[in-house]
Design brief:
By secondary structure, this protein is an alpha+beta fold. Helices cover 12% and strands 29% of the residues. It is built from 2 helices and 7 strands, in the order βββββββαα. Strands 6-4-3-5-2-1-7 form a 7-stranded antiparallel sheet.
């Protein structure tokens, strides 16, 4: 099961001094908004559900996913320990709530883009030729 970034409430957490969104569910990478960053948290073999380190994608001991509007790792960094740097605020927030609180533009949900793509061509500014533009 995965999370819907645009409908589900995530948890607002502090990680490395940044306010970010956290979920115990995997975030599908294809749904990460352009310009945003997604990381996975891993636990240890002894405590797999407690976040221990942050990686690009968890291979085992998945402990959650992070969505951030700022990068939390440098390009060449493969993992980063989160012990002592991960604080749950207990405040649920949707992506729209988070963006409003942080003062950043909220990315549009993919549904709006696909709905716009199914409009008749003349509504999109193209000459009428009797066809409807659909995108896969």
């Amino acid at each position: 099961m995965s999370v819907n970034l645009y409908k589900d409430a995530l948890q607002n957490v502090w990680l490395f001094g940044q306010s970010v969104l956290y979920t115990e569910q995997p975030i599908p990478r294809e749904e990460v908004p352009e310009g945003w960053y997604c990381y996975d948290l891993c636990g240890t073999a002894a405590d797999p559900k407690r976040p221990y380190e942050m990686v690009d994608r968890a291979g085992q001991n998945f402990a959650g996913s992070i969505l951030s509007n700022v990068p939390l790792m440098r390009g060449c960094t493969q993992s980063k320990l989160v012990q002592g740097n991960f604080w749950l605020t207990g405040i649920p927030a949707t992506l729209a709530d988070f963006c409003a609180e942080e003062g950043v533009p909220c990315p549009p949900p993919p549904e709006k883009l696909s709905q716009a793509a199914e409009k008749p061509a003349e509504e999109l500014g193209f000459p009428s030729c009797g066809w409807t533009m659909k995108m896969a």
